[in-house]
Amino acid sequence: MKKYFSLLLTIVLVLFIVNLAVADDFTDYEAGLNYIHPSRSNGNKTVTKNMSLGPGDNVYHNGTTLLCSQCHVMHASMQHPHDGQTLPDPFGPYPQTYTPSKYLLKAADPVALCLTCHDNVAGIPDVVGADVNGLTARSAGFFESPGVDNPRGHKLDYGLGGSSSLCSRCHFSGSFATAAVSCIDCHNPHGNYRPRNLQWASDPGGEPQFGLLINPAATGMSRYEKADVGFGTTNDNNLREVSNMCDDCHHVFTGSNYNDPDGNGIHNRHPSYDSERGSTNNIAQGASRGTTDPTHWENGTGAGFAHTPRLRFVNNGATDFTSSQVVDANINGVFCLSCHSAHGSSNAFGLAWDPVVGKNGEGCDQCHNKTSL
Ligand code: HEC
Ligand code: HEC
Ligand code: HEC
Ligand code: HEC
Ligand code: HEC
Ligand code: HEC
Ligand code: HEC
């Protein structure tokens, strides 16, 4: 009896310690999802797939460009290509044989599958390391190879499961510092008529339409050129700023209750445009207190612009590429993609400028003009 009592005591103690260690973790998953996206429709996915605003039109891996045999193989072998298939095939010469993999995928892991085409294949956007297509700057930037720590952006890795295991990458047993990402966290492999097939990692299929606006004059690989992509928002689910999909994993970096908890207008975390969680901003708003310098931003020369082209901004009200390009401090908002590239870059933290000594505040000064030149 005594033996059992001490065992019980140990269990209670262990549970107590574990509970202390995860004190910041949530317990109700559904409530957790609603906390991340308050505009979420509680599993009742009311947002329709095909929306008339346009940014989700003609996105590859959708509808007629969703070709099952690009990613799946039925019997793990193929003696010859399908009719009309363009060669060479990134998966190699025929006959092809595969190691049978889950979901009949042509690779052991979704990341490896995507990278067979999306790394070093001319004519397909290249998302890792050097760019085989030679674009000036890729809109999303670029990753390191999977499994390699990446201090210049997101770390890709294999073996990451679907949405169910997403939370435990940073909560419970996991930690933010050692976590990693998979392509299909952020992109729907079967297409969702959103630009770049972007999705809410925490609630795939529940996402609104996103304001990532591609220059309609751009064709071929230039559709992925940084200069040919602009950003807009109508501040509702018809067209939400695209950085809304970052909140799924970085939920405490944005929203007014994190950026300015006491609501006095003096920020405790840097503001990032968030129309879903009540934290919109524009560069002109700091003029009265002198925190920002709207004229300097609009002029686009001097401090901050010496080495770095104008940072990207989200234009309040813009629903097409042309209106997204208007430089006006009253409607230009600062958001995640002003400072970071979504995949990564050649700079620390995937930043849009090189924050080394001597020009550490380069990007900052475009809006703040604190370093007199
Ligand atoms: C761009 C690559 C890609 C294409 C093209 C593609 N799939 Fe998939 N498919 C995947 C990946 C990756 C998974 C695994 C998803 C996961 O691990 O959660 C998957 C999983 C599936 C699944 C099982 C899970 C689910 O979502 O239901 C089915 C069924 C499926 N695919 C059918 C199809 C069909 C049918 C087509 C053609 C109309 C197709 N796929 C085209 C990448 C693709
Ligand atoms: C068989 C080769 C192949 C595979 C495998 C593949 N893709 Fe693609 N992907 C393409 C091609 C081709 C395009 C379109 C390039 C163009 O615009 O001409 C494309 C375009 C895209 C785009 C941009 C869509 C747009 O129109 O803006 C995304 C995002 C993307 N792929 C994600 C993925 C992900 C995620 C996976 C893995 C689940 C994947 N792809 C697997 C060939 C592939
Ligand atoms: C599926 C979850 C997920 C989503 C969605 C996501 N991130 Fe991350 N992010 C992570 C994880 C995990 C890390 C930490 C490990 C790493 O570097 O990948 C991270 C790290 C980062 C870092 C630090 C990189 C470094 O070099 O230390 C930046 C910057 C970042 N994310 C920005 C973004 C932006 C911007 C978006 C939206 C476009 C976004 N993230 C969306 C999971 C996510
Ligand atoms: C990239 C890492 C990362 C991922 C993935 C992630 N979170 Fe978080 N989450 C954090 C960080 C960091 C905090 C703030 C510190 C904390 O409270 O632990 C946080 C805080 C929270 C909080 C507030 C906790 C509180 O009471 O303070 C909730 C709720 C939450 N996350 C839910 C989720 C859910 C649900 C998922 C999965 C869909 C998820 N998180 C996935 C990093 C992550
Ligand atoms: C953390 C979220 C995240 C992950 C993980 C991610 N992407 Fe992306 N991806 C984005 C966002 C956001 C954009 C659009 C950003 C922009 O245009 O500034 C994008 C853009 C793209 C594009 C268009 C090219 C470009 O430079 O804009 C392709 C193709 C693509 N992703 C493929 C992939 C593939 C393949 C993987 C896995 C190897 C992957 N992505 C992983 C968020 C992600
Ligand atoms: C005004 C510029 C700016 C904006 C806007 C911004 N960031 Fe950052 N972020 C930075 C800088 C600079 C760093 C590097 C750390 C530092 O210097 O404080 C950083 C660091 C990070 C990190 C790493 C944090 C860590 O603990 O290592 C993540 C993750 C991140 N940002 C995500 C985001 C997301 C998501 C958004 C949008 C909600 C965002 N950032 C908006 C400038 C910005
Ligand atoms: C694209 C424009 C933009 C960039 C780039 C930018 N900021 Fe900001 N920043 C803003 C705006 C807008 C505010 C809100 C100003 C206000 O409400 O007073 C702000 C607020 C701040 C504040 C708080 C001021 C306050 O009183 O609330 C600090 C500090 C700050 N930024 C520092 C930085 C640093 C450091 C960088 C570079 C890592 C940076 N910012 C990059 C636009 C920007």
Q: How many whole angstroms does the radius of gyration measure?
A: 23 Å
Can you give the mean pLDDT?
Answer: 90
Give the oligomeric state of the chains in this entry, treating copies of one chain as homo and distinct chains as hetero.
single chain
Bound molecules: heme C
Beta-strand proportion: under 5%
Largest sheet: 4 strands, mixed
Mass-distribution shape: globular
Strand arrangement within the widest β-sheet reads: 3-4-5-6
Q: Helix and strand succession?
A: HHHEEHHEEHHEHEHH
Give the % helix. 10-25%
- Based on helices, strands and strand pairing, what is the structural class? mainly alpha
What does this entry look like structurally?
The chain has 373 residues and is mainly alpha-helical. The chain contains 10 helices and 6 strands, in the order αααββααββααβαβαα. Strands 3-4-5-6 form a 4-stranded mixed sheet. A two-stranded antiparallel sheet has the order 1-2. The N and C termini lie far apart (79 Å). The site of one heme C has 17 residues, from helix 2. The site of one heme C (HEC) has 17 residues, from helix 2.
